[in-house]
Design goal:
The protein is mainly alpha-helical. 48% of the residues lie in helices and 11% in strands. The chain has four domains: 158 residues, Rossmann fold; 93 residues, Glutamyl-tRNA Synthetase, domain 3, CATH 3.90.800; 54 residues; 92 residues, Arc Repressor Mutant, subunit A. The protein starts with a strand and ends with a helix. It binds one RNA strand of 75 nucleotides through helix 4, strand 7, helix 5, strand 12 and helix 10.
RNA sequence: GGCCCCAUAGUCUAGCGGUUAGGACGCCGGCCUCUCACGCCGGAAACUAGGGUUCGAUUCCCUAUGGGGCUGCCA
C-alpha cells in the first residue's frame, strides 16, 4: 500500500513552529515511502478562520520549500460532500439531531460538575421526535455495544480508552458546518490518507475519530502522535516563549533549511548526526526514529544550526539571500554582484543570521559616520601613524603582499606590534573595533576608498587634537 | 477533579538487560590570532523516587512524584 500523508492547518493564525514540524514529519514520511503529501486547510470554523491566514500558511510552505502533491483543499468548499455523509449517518441511526439549547447544555454541564461527575451530554435528544423545529446540531450516537476503543499508535503503542469517557459529541454545528472530527475523518478517508502524523494533543480525539471511521464504513488509518514542543518553562510553546510564527524566523534572517534541520531534531535523531540535508532526512526519516517525550524549543541551538548553514552556503547564493536584508538596512537596492559575494565571504564565518550578516556588511557600502569611542581612545593617539601609512601606500600596487609590506614597515618604524597598526586601520575603514580582517576589507573596498577612509580618520584626529 | 500520554546533564538526544552512560547546543578553560568570529584541544554537567522481575537493571513490570494533553456548536 502506498503512503499518503497530510498536513491540515486551520487558518486561525500564522503557521507556527509546531505546525511546521508536524508538516515536516508528514512530508518526510511521505517522501521516504515514495508516497503523497497533501495540504488541506481546515477552515470549518467560520468565526475564527481568515483567508489571509490561509495565504500566509501557503506562503510559509513556499519559503521552507516543502512542496505538496495535492491541495490545498479547503474544507469550507466541501460542504456537499460532508452533507451526504451526515444524512447517511442520521438515516442509519448513527447520529441524531439535537435541539438542546446552549442554555440547557451549559446548565447541564454546570450541575454535573457540581455533582462531581463527568460533564457529558445526557442524551436528551437521542429519543426521536423530542422536538422537530428550531436550530439543531447533529450528534454522533455513541455505540453502546463496545466498552472501549482501542488503537495502535506507531509511537505510543497500544492505546485504549473506555467508551464511558466519551459522550454523544457534536459533529455538525447549528450553522450546518461540520465539526473538526467529522470533516477530518471524511476528508482523510476520501483523500486516501493512510498515515496520520500529528501532535499528541490529538491523542484524545483519536477514539472519537475511530468511532466515526467505523460508523462511516471507512478503513482506519495508521496513527503516529508525535510529542509536542514546549517552551523553556515546559509549558506548551506559545508566544510568551518567543517567536512562534515561522515568518518571524524568515524576517530575522534564518535560512529555511536550517530551521527545518533544527525542527526535525526536536524528536528525531539519526546516530550522532546533527546536520542533515533534505535528501538525507528523506532517506533516514522513519517513525521509529522519533522519540515519545515532549521537547523544549531551544533558540540558541537553532541559532547555532543557522550559523552552520551560513558557513556552508555557496557564497553567491548567500549573497542573494543577504541582499534583501542589506537593502532594508541601507534603505536602497543592493545589487547582487561579484563584489557583494566577495564581501559576503568575509562575514560568512562571523554571522549567525542573515540579518546579522547584513549589519556586518554595512560598512562596505557606507563609510563610517562616526568612530567607536573606546577604540579611538585605545588605539588612535594621534594621526601620525595613519599619515605614515598613507605615505607608504600612496604609490603601491593594491595587493595583499604590498599591503603587508607597508604595514610591516610601519610596525618597524614605530616599533609596535601588528595590533597597534591593524586597529586604527580597522576603525578608519569600519568605524568599529570588530570586523573582518583588514587585508580582505581593503582589497574589497579598493585603493581609493580605503585610503580615503584612512584620511578621514586622520583628519578627524587632527581636528580633535 | 476524571481520562490519556510522557520521564537520561540547563536543553536536544543515543541507549532497545551486562557501556569508563555516547554525541550536540549552551557554559567554563586553553590554543590559534590584526579585532571579532571560525577552527582545534580540554573540562564541569544526567539515568526522578521506591518497590519488584532477574545472576545482573538507565533499560522490563508496578506504585508514587513531576510534567504535558484532552475534558468546546476550536482545531
Amino acid at each position: 500500500m502506498s503512503v499518503v500523508t497530510r498536513f491540515p492547518p486551520s487558518p486561525t493564525g500564522f503557521l507556527h513552529i509546531g505546525g511546521l514540524r508536524t508538516a515536516l514529519f508528514n512530508y518526510l514520511y511521505a517522501r521516504h515511502h515514495d508516497g503523497k503529501f497533501i495540504l488541506r486547510i481546515e477552515d470549518t470554523d467560520s468565526e475564527r478562520s481568515e483567508k489571509r491566514f490561509s495565504e500566509l500558511i501557503i506562503k510559509a510552505f513556499e519559503w521552507v520549500g516543502l512542496d505538496f502533491d495535492e491541495g490545498p483543499y479547503f474544507q469550507s468548499q466541501r460542504g456537499e460532500i460532508y452533507a451526504k455523509y451526515i444524512d447517511k449517518l442520521i438515516k442509519e441511526g448513527k447520529a441524531y439531531r439535537c435541539y438542546c439549547s446552549r442554555e440547557r447544555l451549559s446548565k447541564l454541564k454546570e450541575s454535573q460538575i457540581s455533582k462531581g461527575i463527568k460533564p457529558h451530554y445526557d442524551g436528551f435528544c437521542r429519543e426521536q421526535n423530542r422536538k422537530t423545529s428550531g436550530d439543531y446540531t447533529v450528534r454522533f450516537k455513541l455505540p453502546d455495544s463496545v466498552g472501549k476503543v482501542e488503537f495502535y499508535d506507531m509511537i505510543h503503542g497500544k492505546i485504549s480508552v473506555a467508551l464511558s469517557e466519551l459522550d454523544d459529541f457534536i459533529i455538525v454545528r447549528s450553522n450546518r458546518m461540520p465539526m473538526y472530527n467529522l470533516a477530518c475523518v471524511i476528508d482523510d478517508a476520501l483523500m486516501g490518507v493512510t498515515d496520520i502524523i500529528r501532535g499528541d494533543d490529538h491523542l484524545s480525539n483519536t477514539p472519537k475519530q475511530i468511532l466515526l471511521y467505523k460508523a462511516l464504513g471507512f478503513d482506519i488509518p495508521r496513527y503516529a502522535h508525535v510529542p509536542m514542543i514546549l517552551g523553556e518553562d515546559k509549558k506548551r510553546f506559545s508566544k510568551r516563549h518567543g517567536a512562534t510564527s515561522v515568518s518571524v524566523y524568515k524576517d530575522e534572517g534564518y535560512l529555511p533549511d536550517a530551521l527545518l534541520n533544527y525542527l526535525v531534531r526536536l524528536g528525531f535523531s539519526y546516530k550522532d548526526q546533527e546536520i542533515f540535508s533534505l535528501d538525507e532526512l528523506i532517506r533516514y526519516f522513519d517513525i521509529d526514529r522519533l522519540g515519545k517525550s515532549a521537547s523544549v524549543f531551544n533558540p540558541s541551538k537553532l541559532l547555532w544550526i543557522n550559523s552552520v548553514y551560513i558557513k556552508n552556503r555557496e557564497p553567491s547564493k548567500l549573497a542573494e539571500e543577504i541582499a534583501p536584508f542589506l537593502s532594508e538596512l541601507l534603505k536602497r537596492e543592493i545589487d547582487v554582484d561579484e563584489k557583494l559575494t566577495e564581501a559576503v565571504k568575509t562575514v560568512q564565518q562571523r554571522a549567525k543570521t542573515l540579518k546579522e550578516a547584513a549589519g556586518q556588511l554595512k560598512f562596505y557600502f557606507e563609510a563610517p559616520s562616526d568612530y567607536d569611542e573606546k577604540g579611538i581612545k585605545k588605539y588612535c593617539k594621534d594621526s601620525g601613524l595613519l599619515k605614515e601609512l598613507l605615505r607608504l601606500a600612496e604609490d603601491i600596487k593594491w595587493s595583499e603582499s604590498e599591503l603587508k609590506r607597508v604595514i610591516e614597515e610601519t610596525m618597524d618604524k614605530f616599533q609596535i606590534k601588528m595590533i597597534k597598526v591593524a586597529q586604527p586601520i580597522r576603525i578608519a575603514l569600519t568605524g568599529k573595533t570588530v570586523s573582518p580582517g583588514i587585508y580582505e576589507m581593503m582589497l574589497i573596498l579598493g585603493k581609493s576608498e580605503s585610503l580615503k577612509r584612512i584620511e578621514n580618520l586622520s583628519r578627524f584626529l587632527d581636528e580633535r587634537a
